[in-house]
Amino acid sequence: MEENVLKERVAQLEDHILKKCLWQFHSRAWDRERQNENILGKTTQILCGEPVAKETAEDRCYYADAVCLADAYKERFDWINTLNVAEIKEVMAALKERIDYVTITGSLNEELTVKQY
Amino acid sequence: MPHHRFECSECIPEREKHAVVKGPGEDLTDALPLGYLNTIPGTISERGCAYCGAKHVIGTPMKDVIHISHGPVGCTYDTWQTKRYISDNDNFQLKNTFATDVKEKHIVFGAEKLLKQNIIEAFKAFPDIKRMTIYQTCATALIGDDIGAVADEVMEEMPDVDIFVCNSPGFAGPSQSGGHHKINIAWVKNKVGTVEPEITSDYVINYVGEYNIQGDQEVMQDYFKRMGIQVLSTFTGNGSYDDLRAMHKAHLNVLECARSAEYICNELRVKYNIPRLDIDGFGFEPLSSSLRKIGIFFGIEDRAQAIIDEETARWKPELDWYKERLKGKKVCLWPGGSKLWHWANVIHEEMGVEVVSLYTKFGHQGDMEKGIARCEEGALAIDDPNELEGLEAMEKLKPDVIFTGKRPGEVAKKVRVPYLNAHAYHNGPYKGYEGWVRFARDIYNAIYSPIHQLSGIDISKDEIATDKGFSTQRLVSDANLPEEVKNSETLRQYTGGFDSVSKLRNKTYPYLEQRAASVEA
User: Model-level pTM greater than 0.90?
Assistant: First the structure.
């Protein structure tokens, strides 16, 4: 996928997460890492039609957020329905990198690394 | 997203780092206001204290409890009614306030005897109430009263009572948020796991960070019950003390106000393996998505969808009536807590208003991250503003309305900016589908009240026209609307009743077949 197309698509997906979701802003960095990894990972699996783990209560929780995100993406961004599995994975990996940056590595929130809640 | 310097705070350069403007193309990594820090001397912060956060925000919404402040009676300031966290047991916790009324002689000689005497007196005065929470204040923390020992002594003498000690004096944190933290952790450490509840459903949740403002919790509980979900406890609006001791038996913690109550969810996640799901209860789309997520978690998504379809069909035409008349209005979103992020995007999308500023008086940087991420470009985000900064912001931004607490709200009215109570509401509840329409109606009434035509007249010098009447709300709000909107047969104003909550209390719910608590592929 061309870089400018990828960037534009990631920006759309990112904007949706920042405006509509809450799971990405847990108050500690380790928690944000877990949230981003699991929810975006499961969203990717759903969009690619792959099996998703939902045996544990925690898995089902991530799954619930992932289903809603995948549905919203399919409904709002027509282009996502035209991508093949490899392209979806490319976009979602870039999205994960971007969300990690905005919420963790590039975040100016000084509380993220405080150990105790 | 550069920092913003208020003219009135030029002599306090540190304040610049507490305000930012969301610039075009910028994101949260460009600038973020500082937050949850000790107040800068000279800024005249309007925050509350840690005791206030523990007692007034988290503890007191518990309904079947004698809430007693161990300290001077002044610490009970603002107790009555101001939060409007109503309860279905005749508002016991709102109607009655208890303090040990510590005086100088107690500071010198100790106040433990006074505390014990007060506890026993309070239990005798209300023999049906067997539960109590004691809140430490600055004065009794400084003299070192051992409240826990006194509580243990009373529980030994009166075996039918149970007492929770909340050690969160005013100085325990930089703002009320420190008190939120302390009471969360103390409750999970000392009380959770001490009662075994009756489980009546395969689907059991704790509803956390919900304070039942004007009935919000009861509205949400209605949806949960219609889905066949048992709400084991509500932390803490309309919540019962013993239900809250049984939080460890839930399958899921559903969290609304993350900053005030996420601590308890995180501890329950570690200790009892109960996952946490953050939801929005405000606005049609966020609420629908929230109900759906809970449905997906339990494998009962169809039940959630049935509610979403029914409620949307009933209330959407009424929301849209207001949206047509609120489009483009400028709003300062200056609430106390989670409404900062719960409302920032959805009031724009579903009511058409523009959020030009948001603030929090005691929020953390994480709260601002959520708020700024969700509001529009150009919005001014302020941490811990004082009255002068608030006035300066209103003068520059010229909002059509502000959503805030009663004290800054009164200040806004003086400069002719309509104010809507974001803490206790005007005519809530605002949660739920009907509630969201009630909120839109309150905004409409605030902006288009004919009183604004009168409020600009200086009766000492201006002439008052006697040959013409004042315009009505509809004349003002509909002046520039297209005919098809004005005469729409679909859109309509709010048709619900004055009280949308009481009727829920006697409602019966259909028996719903239990299903295996697994998610379908």
Answer: yes
